[in-house]
Amino acid sequence: MMMQIFHKYKEMILYIFFGICTTAVNIVVYYISFYFLSLGTSISTILSWLLSVIFAYLTNKLWVFNNNATSKGSIIKEIVSFYGCRLATGALDLCFMVIFVDCLHFNNMLMKILSNVIVVILNYIFSKFYIFKK
């Protein structure tokens, strides 16, 4: 019974699992950059975005969407569309952080978590229906 449920929802379960892992990478890198390296909100957000997107691309391609694209053209198209979509949600994350942390002075870690929830949902939609569509 559990295996049937897993197989039926495998993609969603794996996306949620690796989405949580990607979010953890994003938040940990942001925290270290902001509090230990004193890089500020914008630089910390950009650095955390960069490292989490690399992690997300690899996990989404290999395990979530089982994408087997091997031709150079297919891989380049996939990478460009993946990073293009992630750049859009990364810009949303950066704007969100600047507005709510730098301008409105909300708690930066709380805003980072909230921003990541929004970004993960949007990234799933982009990945499922545009980047790794079957």
From TrEMBL:
The chain crosses the membrane at residues 12-33, 39-58, 79-101, 113-132. One of its GO terms (biological process) is polysaccharide biosynthetic process. It comes from the Bacteria. It is found in: Membrane. It holds the Pfam family GtrA_DPMS_TM. One of its GO terms (cellular component) is plasma membrane. Keywords: Membrane, Transmembrane, Transmembrane helix. Belongs to the GtrA family. This is GtrA family protein. Its main location: membrane. Residues 15-132 form the GtrA/DPMS transmembrane domain. InterPro entries: GtrA_CellWall_Glycosyl (IPR051401), GtrA_DPMS_TM (IPR007267). It is a multi-pass membrane protein. It comes from Amedibacillus dolichus. Signal peptide: none annotated.
